[in-house]
Amino acid sequence: MSGRLTSSNKVAVVGYAHSVVQRHNPRPLGALTVDIVREAIADAGLTPAQVDGIVAATLFPSAGSHTVEDGVHTVTTNWLAERLGASPRYVAGFQGVGQVSGSVALAVNAIVSGAADHVVLYRSLHNPRGSYHASSTDAFGGPAQWTAPTGYFGPLAMIALPYNEYLQRYGATREAMAAVLVEARKNGARIPWSYWYGKPLTAEQYLAAPTLTDPICRYDCDIPVDGVAAFVLTSADRAVDGPNRPVYVSGYAHAVPKTNNRLPLHWPLDDIMTAGLDTARRLWESAGVKPGEVDLPQMYDGFSPFVWFWLESLGLCPVGEAHRFVQDGRIDSDRPDALPILSGGGALGNGRMHGIPQMLECYLQLAGRAGDRQRAKATLAVACQSSPHYGGAVVYSADPF
């Protein structure tokens, strides 16, 4: 099935809350989540008793052998439902890789179907003590037996492969990627809750950073953090009565990876782009818009190469040209003639909050709640999550159309 979603612009985001992003929060993740979710509900002009839907994605992103305890290292929707003081009739968790976009789809479908009236969507991230991807495993089975013993283990190796392919195929350089990092950190440094608040990055600092897995350096990776964000969604009809300007969900799409029997960590560039172009086609069809109509595209940047991959997948620049497109101020959010693809700082400018910075920037700008960072023109936005071939994207609108 293809074409515009029947749910397009029938659901709106009407409130939010966000914790301070820290390397390690002194409070348990569950306690922090309860407080932030309650703040988001109050921001929407509601009480917990009025919330009858809860959705989230609870993927614990570390590849290491860490303990994962509900309420401490992750927070499931069932755990929260028991402690929020609400009486939800719809509780669901998204299990895919596009954490935030998948959760948005669950919330929209619940509201449009009548399964819930007011849905809270949240994402809780925990940074375990010790080395983030450290593994105590001394023997591997399944697909990992063919990669891990040779050092091909974890997300760094996974993203280094297509990044190397891109550099070699299109003659791109790490100097070109510096423009992405400088822009992300510049904008994150302006946001009070960001881990990098007050800490911009220069191109020279980026290029001098130690290499982790060639060509990925330290600053190509979002920093692991403790943090929570929450949003409240309701029907477009109810949204007009709330205290904040509604931001409508116009469309969404999720990737359908065509792995060709690849190993789980084997991400060739062609696989990413083939599936990414298909994801983008379905995204624009779902919202009934074209790439050129979007004035606030927020690229996912858990690893910096994703920015280039999404730009090309979405049709915002030609395939193979993203490394040139991001240079010479063309993504500088301070320039009115530029494309502000990281105006919210992204993950590289905030911390490892998955797709939250992208969704939040879309909401704040379209709702007119970005404060000193408010853009003069912000009417149609897109928020991307994860890789174009494993994640998803959501189109948001300031006005239903």
TrEMBL record:
It holds the Pfam family Thiolase_C_1. InterPro entries: Thiolase, Thiolase-like, Thiolase_C_2. Residues 274-384 form the Thiolase C-terminal domain. Transmembrane segments: none annotated. Signal peptide: none annotated. PANTHER family: ACETYL-COA C-ACETYLTRANSFERASE, NON-SPECIFIC LIPID-TRANSFER PROTEIN-LIKE 2. This is Thiolase family protein. The lineage of its organism: Bacteria, Bacillati, Actinomycetota, Actinomycetes, Frankiales.
